[in-house]
Each structure stands twice: as structure tokens, then as C-alpha cells.
Amino acid sequence: MPPVRDHLRVVVQGSGRRARGAGLARVLWAVAELTVTVGVVVLLLVVHQVWWTNRQAAAAAQEQVRELESRWAGGPDPDPDPDPGVGDAPGAGVEAGPDPVGAGEGDVPEPEGGGSGAPAASSPGGGGGAAKPRSPAQAPKGAYAVLRIPRLGLTVPVAQGIDKRGVLDKGYVGHYPGTAAPGERGNFALAGHRNTHGEPFRYVNRLRAGDELTVDVRGRRFVYVVGKILPETSERDTGVIAPVPRSVVKPEVGYSEPGAYITLTTCTPEYSSKYRLVVWGTLKR
User: CA-CA distance, 89 to 96, in Å (whole number)?
Assistant: First the structure.
């Protein structure tokens, strides 16, 4: 009889170990399933943010370019709307105020598509002597100009203000409030996303001195030539959008004489907003 009792005791102990092992396996399996589920949800959110919103904004921006050009081809605009436009108040949006850049995070492997056709007319000498366009502060809501960067194959609408929701997240380039209008003396300063939401300034780091930047406003074309590039500066470097642009963080970089300038600003490095990348150009005479 004693051997039988010993045998039964061993069997009971073995069953207990198997039960504990099975319970641990179930816990590990549940954790694995939860991890996979969370991973899939995160992946879908990334795809939505990086790919889908980018495609939506880029497509809408190109449609806005076509609408502008169609309107210009049909004749002069109606009387200006006294409302200064979308998001043009200083401090509007998270990237207004002293921050000289509007940009975001994201990742799409190719630049914006090419142009939507030439403007209806060009002024002599790139627009230097043409009548001034209506000030953006008096422009109707929405985009009022088209920026083209031939080296990048970029055609993008320009709207007044740098509000994220009202301007930048639509895939537009935003015109800093208080800076000069296209073709005017002073600094025509622009901000754009580098990643996601159309990412118009994704590849501005590829620009080189001598590249042309054109701005079309109701059939008039203003041509700027890239002169200087500031690869990295602080987000608070307001000097880069001053009437005579010069970095206050790196005072050796910039200009010292009044003129007609254009400034492109965006975030750097890619997928972050830690620093700002700045491209400057001067109006071609």
C-alpha cells in the first residue's frame, strides 16, 4: 500500500505544475495579443497621419492652385474682402508669434507634383516694375498667390497667415503677418510644413544659390533668386523674417542692405521641430 500512496502523490504534483504552466501560457498569449493589437492601431494611426492626411492636403492644395489660375484667367478679382484672411493675426495657431517657422512631422518619399500651367501673363523683368498686387492683408480668405520652385517641381498655393489648421495643415504655404507682399521691398516671408499635410517644403534643403523661386499673383509673376541658406537655427530666431533678414542667433548669416527679399522657413531635422531651416532669395530685376 505505501508505494501506491507515493505514486498518487507524484501524479497530483505533476498535474499542479501543468496547470500553472497552462495559466502562464494563457497570460503570455493575452499579453502578446494585446501588444499586436496596440501595434496595429499605432501603425494605422501613423499611416493615417503620414500618408493619408498628406495625400489629402496635397490634392486639395493642387485643386486650390487650379481654382486660382482659372479665376485669374477669367478676369480681375472682385473687390477685396476687408477681412484680412485666414489665421493672419499675430499669435494665431501654435506656430505664430515669434516662432519663424510653421512645419510638422511626417514622412512621404516624394516631393509635391509639378505645375498646373503657366500664369496668364508675366511682368517684365520678373515683376520688379509692375504694379503692386493687392496687399495680402486685403486679400480674400484662402489662397491668394502661387509659389513655384522649379528645381523641386513644386507648385503650391500661398495663403495669408501661418495658422496650422487654417493654412499650413491644408498643404498651403503661409505668409507671415506683417511681412512684405510679393514684389515689394522688405521681406516676403513664408512658412510651410516639411513633413505631413502636403509637406510643400519637404525638400527645400536641396535648393542652391541661383535657383529661382516664382510667385504668381493674378497673372503677375515675381521671380526671386536664392542667395543664402541657413541650414539650422533656433525656432525663436525672428531675425530671419525681418525686413532686412539676418539671423540673431548667427549674426554672420544674412543681409545688411534693404531690398526685396523672400524667405522660406521650415523645421529641421526631418520628423522634428527642434530647429529651423531658412532659405533666402532676392527679387530678380
Answer: 8
Report the distance separating Cα 121 and Cα 147, nearest Å: 15
Strand bridging mode 173-175 / 154-160: parallel
Residue 90 contacts residue 178 (beta carbons within 8 Å): yes
Looking at the DSSP bridge assignments, the partners of residue 233 are: 276
pLDDT of residue 135: 45
Dump pLDDT digits (tens) for 190-199: 999 998 888 9
CA distances from 208 to 110, 232, 237 (A): 19, 15, 22
pLDDT at 4: 55
Q: Which domains does the chain have, with CATH numbers?
A: 44-283 (2.40.260.10)
Write out pLDDT tens, residues 42-86: 665 665 566 677 888 889 999 999 999 999 987 655 544 433 333
Counts of helices then strands in the chain (DSSP H, E) = 2, 8
Q: Are the C-beta atoms of 201 and 264 separated by less than 8 Å? A: yes
Residue among 262, 270, 50 at smallest CA distance from 173: 262
- CB-CB contact of 264 with 222 (8 Å): no
pLDDT above 80: residue 124: no
Helix (H, G, I), strand (E, B) or coil at 173: strand
> Which residues form the catalytic set?
193, 267, 276
